[in-house]
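Sample A.
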Amino acid sequence: MNETAAISKENLPGAEDAIQMVGFVLAGELFGVDILMVQEIIKESAITSIPDSPDFIEGVINLRGNIIPIIDLRKRLNLPAATKAPDSPSWTLILDIGGRTTGFIVDHVTRVIKMPQNAIQPPPEMVVSALKSQYINGICRLDEQMMAVLDFNRILAVDEFKRLGALKRQQAR
């Protein structure tokens, strides 16, 4: 089954000082991404593997004629391997990152979250000093849980974008 859920920015109530994010879970933790980066959310997509690609690149998908590289976000962030049931569906966030469309596999998508801009705090100094924290834009409290807001512009370095472009060209042949 291939379900696609589109997020309509027009249907959401707006406030000038609020940020709208798509919440998702990865390794039992809650994360968020700016809704303006999200093109769509796909559930259960067939991925074609690409030989000799980095371990975090799962392969590519054909989305309405466009070849989209797919990255396992869990592997990219060096999070523990998934322990979910084999029959549970995977979700892919299709994001526009600096004009490049890229898919990221996550455990599941939660909901659209509207957060006051001042509720998002910078990560603590101890977290900032860690290499992995370069991907975190901020941290906020959502209900009884903390949510890390990811900066997908930093998740892929420039040289990785070049490798993804080479994969797309190789797959198109």
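Sample B, a different protein:
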Amino acid sequence: MEEYVILVDENDNMVGTAEKMDAHINPRLHRAFSIIIFNSKDEVLIQKRALDKYHTPGLWANTCCSHPRPGEELEAAAHRRLQEEMGFDTALARVFSFIYEAKFENGVTEKEYDHVLFGRWDGTPIKNPAEVADYKWIAKNALTEDIKKNPEIYTPWFRIAWEKLLMEKVI
């Protein structure tokens, strides 16, 4: 089944749609979201991407990330994907957005207008093995240090979002 993404301009205004892989092979700016979940101990839930993902397989990322479908509201897509990838849902709040571009060795490029959403939840995720190889809860300071020491094991968008969170003192 073909999937489509929402193409946007630099102000996140929809300018069209494109088949998902085409938008990544012939890079076009498209709408995306990244969810970061904290628990009551103020730890962050991160996931290791499944090993057969079309880019960045086996790298650590935020709790969940994806693209809304054409005609789908961003928040609805975020809740849908959180359930599909991690097996739970919780209240989410948008905190900021940013644009980034990252090229990968396999010829795929992410060129996204990424909306970052936060949530709080305590529990044990039920990971979807097609999406997630592993997950862990990690203290914020330990995560910050590990990203500094081992940036290559984290996805580009997560490194950018985490740095922005720290710089803007959002967390």
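Observation for Sample B: The mean pLDDT is 96.
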